[in-house]
Design goal:
Mean pLDDT: 90
Protein name: Tetratricopeptide repeat protein
Shape: elongated
GO molecular function: mannosyltransferase activity
Low-confidence stretches: 1-19
Strand order of the largest sheet: 1-2
Keywords: Coiled coil, Repeat, Signal, TPR repeat
Strand content: under 5%
Structural class: mainly alpha
Pfam family, one: TPR_19
Radius of gyration: 35 Å
InterPro entries: O-mannosyl-transferase_TMTC (IPR052346), TPR-like_helical_dom_sf (IPR011990), TPR_rpt (IPR019734)
Order of helices and strands: HHHHHEEHHHHHHHHHHHHHH
Distance between the termini: 107 Å
Number of strands: 2
């Protein structure tokens, strides 16, 4: 029994020793990574972030960022954990602890080559960029967005990731995210016109007129002559019924540049909204005098004639079947013929211009076909019917 007691006494220090905290080795963590032992590398580097002697060393967090970033960009490693966020946060922590010294950190590749801090981060983010691009081209917009968002986590001031994330979000019907990322792109100094204009155009299309107005004005500070944004700004003001502000804006624009066709056109849009039809017609005519192939001005000018034709058609349809009404109907039909003959040249001229969209072309051709029917012009009726059939809209 005495001997047994001695054995037990000697065994106690061994038990205590086995429970002693193991010292993490950040270099061994990197070696495990190079050997493809990802879980081992992860366990070791995670332990280093809580170990007293390594937890406040910027290099520990730099290595952790490298390890997590490598795992996230390696197709052979699968994890439900948000590895990218951990990696990005680790690089940030390394900077906080080491300051400018962090830029001197490096790791070595399998061949012994040096990979400095900036190159390590760039290698990871380039992987996200390439993966995102591949997914985008394969029309997996949700997957592409996830990759670009990872890039943003690593490089929160890189305009490229915000631009691409905006495009992916837009194509994936995540419109709020599209506006968010593209707006940030502009704030960070991005200057690609397409990306800059999209937030305002998306907001306007979604009938968020306050948002569209704010976004258009922000970009107009940089692109003061951008036609689409000028139109969004004005139409947003009209939708918000800020007519005085809209009028002042356009009057200033016309005075500043009397040869700007768009300003006259937009003034016509405003006057049309205010039911100042004669003023609006003059505005559209002024726009066409400056730019003869201005489709929108030509089309809007033609619509003034169509309004009168529609009124006449309504009168015809409301007539009864009495003899007096039959005579009145014939008079109105002749009136409509003359109105149609006056309107047709305006629409035919618009037809020869560059039409902004297929839907607009179909709308114009349908109106022309109606007018040709009113004047019994079978030849032209057949002509536009054939064009509508070619466009897939012959009903």
């Amino acid at each position: 029994m005495k001997k047994l007691a001695i054995v037990l006494f000697l065994a106690v220090p061994g038990i205590v020793s086995a429970q002693k905290e193991v010292k993490p080795n950040i270099n061994k963590a990197l070696t495990s990574l190079k050997d493809g032992k990802f879980d081992e590398a992860k366990t070791m580097i995670d332990a280093a972030t809580t170990y007293e002697k390594t937890m406040n060393d910027g290099k520990t967090w730099f290595y952790r960022g490298v390890i997590y970033g490598a795992m996230d960009t390696t197709s052979s490693y699968n994890s439900t954990e948000d590895l990218a966020s951990v990696a990005a946060a680790s690089f940030k922590k390394a900077n906080e602890l080491a300051g400018s010294k962090a830029s001197s950190y490096f790791v070595t590749d399998k061949k012994g080559g040096l990979i400095p801090y900036d190159m390590a981060v760039t290698s990871i983010t380039n992987s996200y960029l390439m993966k995102g691009d591949k997914l985008f081209n394969g029309e997996d917009f949700k997957g592409a967005l996830q990759q670009f968002e990872k890039g943003i986590a690593f490089k929160p001031t890189d305009t490229t990731f915000y631009e691409y994330a905006g495009y992916a979000a837009f194509n994936g019907e995540a419109r709020e995210k599209a506006v968010k990322y593209l707006s940030e792109y502009v704030k960070l100094g991005g200057r690609r016109a397409q990306a800059m204009t999209m937030p305002a155009l998306i907001a306007y299309e979604d009938q968020n007129y306050e948002g569209a107005l704010a976004a258009s004005r922000e970009v107009l500070k940089v692109l003061p002559t951008h036609k689409d944004l000028k139109a969004v700004e004005l139409n947003s003001l009209i939708q918000l019924k800020k007519y005085d502000e809209a009028a002042k804006l356009l009057e200033t624009a016309v005075k500043a540049n009397p040869n700007d066709a768009q300003s006259f056109y937009l003034l016509g849009v405003l006057n049309n909204e205010l039911q100042k039809f004669e003023d609006a017609k003059k505005n559209f005519e002024s726009a066409l005098a400056i730019t003869p192939d201005y489709f929108d001005a030509q089309y809007n000018l033609a619509n003034f004639y169509l309004i009168e034709i529609d009124k006449t058609s309504k009168e015809i349809n409301e007539l009864g079947i009495s003899a007096a009404n039959a005579k009145k109907k014939q008079e109105l039909v002749q009136k409509r013929v003359k109105q149609s003959e006056a309107a047709i040249p305006f629409l035919e001229k618009a037809e020869k211009m560059k039409i902004p969209s297929k839907d607009m072309e179909i709308d114009l051709l349908n109106k022309l076909r109606q007018l040709y029917y009113y004047i019994a012009d079978d030849k032209n009726d057949a002509r536009v019917t054939a064009k509508l059939k070619a466009l897939g809209a012959d009903d």
